[in-house]
Amino acid sequence: MRTRPAIAPRRRLAAFTLVEVLITMVTTTIIMGGVMAAYMYGLRMVQFVQPKLTSSDEARKAVSLLTEEIRSAFDVKVGNRDGTAFAPVAPFTPQQGNALRIYPGPDSNAFIFYFWDVNDKTLKRTTNNATTAKIVAESVSNSVVFAAEDFKGTLLSNDVNNRVIVATLQFYQIHYPKVAVGPGNYYDWYQLQCKVTKRTLD
Asked: Pick from 112, 167, 107: which is nearest to 134 by CA?
């Protein structure tokens, strides 16, 4: 007598339940939200740091030339620019002003001239035979840019030989990209200062 083969039970189809789908969607949404939040935070940090890094690089390029010219100078005079003329600081008065005259050699008619321009608030550089002045630093708010100090950092009142020349630049705006400096902005205060003395003393 033949027996009929047993009918195999129908296999259940594998599928997610509604609860599993909801949990997966919520988890994915949380992870994507975290990734987007981290990405947006990174963009904000780039916007915060990039102007400062760029301005530091620009300031370093500007000051490096000034530093090298002072180090190799024959003589350096701190003074003030009045119109187009340069007036050295008088004896027995604080050695500080808005201009600096650098003499590369003993010839007093050959010089390099740095000055703060009150009209456009820039630090400029020119030479005795140049017709125009080149902008070294922009958006400089302080008028007293140059000073002469002794080795202790005390402001001098006379033109001594072994003095230290101090250049101080206080910026009210950072360039590339432009960012305002002051209360309520990214940076409340931004200053660059360098101290240099001549390599060869008389």
From this structure: 112
